[in-house]
Amino acid sequence: MTASSDSSARVEQVPPDASSDPRPWHKSRRGRWIAIAGGLLLFILGIWLAMTKLPRWLTTPETTAPAASATAGSEARRIQAVLFHVAEDGTSLVGATVAVPYGSTTVDQLRYLVDAQVRPATGSAHSAVPEGTTVRAVFVTGDHEAYVDLGGAIVTGQSGGSQNEALTVYAIVNAITVNLPDITAVQILVNGKEVDSLAGHIDLRHPLTKALDWITKDTH
Question: What residues have CB less than 8 Å from 129, skipping those under 6 apart?
Fold first, then answer.
């Protein structure tokens, strides 16, 4: 009897199985809430940084100063180039040495040269390119051929004569090929398209090479 009672007492005193203890569930739930709170805090911190710090970082002077300095330097540097105007006899071209901006690439230098060539001549010189001509774009192919896309008065400003048309075309072609020896030929486009000619005389359907026979020596 006594032994049986002691055995029962011992059985009743065995602690309940740990799997039935509710405390691990509470710990898991608490950990989940801590993770959620931490994520929310990081989200709020990210918004604050985006609103307060990011605009300042994007507009910091250090990021823009080098680019501005490089641009200013390239604009200040100039080279001597030969541009072509109509000679006094009106039948040929004469070269004039002028300063034009320096281009760090062939395409950049090409653009500066064409811009200078189509600009109205100064002093007593007579421009070979109709006033009001604009430069829309320039590019160079892998075969070292330059394409010059012109607009504005390049067509409407032509007088209609074959000689004036030739002077316009070869002033541009020679200005490019003389100053950029790597360019082997030049094709003139008008408003982004290939054209047969400017005034019905000079064939512009293919690139043109240098034509020094149109150039006369300046007598001054």
Answer: 117, 118, 154, 168, 171, 172
For residue 93, what is the enclosing H or E element?
Answer: strand 93-101
Average pLDDT, the chain: 81
Strand 78-86 to 126-127 pairing = antiparallel
Q: What is the CA radius of gyration of the chain?
A: 40
pLDDT beneath 70, residues of the chain: 1-29, 48-75, 218-220
Sign of dihedral through CA atoms 147, 148, 149, 155?
Answer: negative
Cα separation values, 25 from 20, 28, 123, Å: 10, 5, 95
Q: What is the pLDDT of residue 44?
A: 80
The candidate with the shortest Cα–Cα distance to 166, out of 202, 195, 132, 139, is: 202
Amino acid identity, residue 36? Answer: I
Q: What is the pLDDT of residue 129?
A: 97
Helix (H) or strand (E) holding 135: strand 133-140
> Residue holding tokens 């931490």?
38
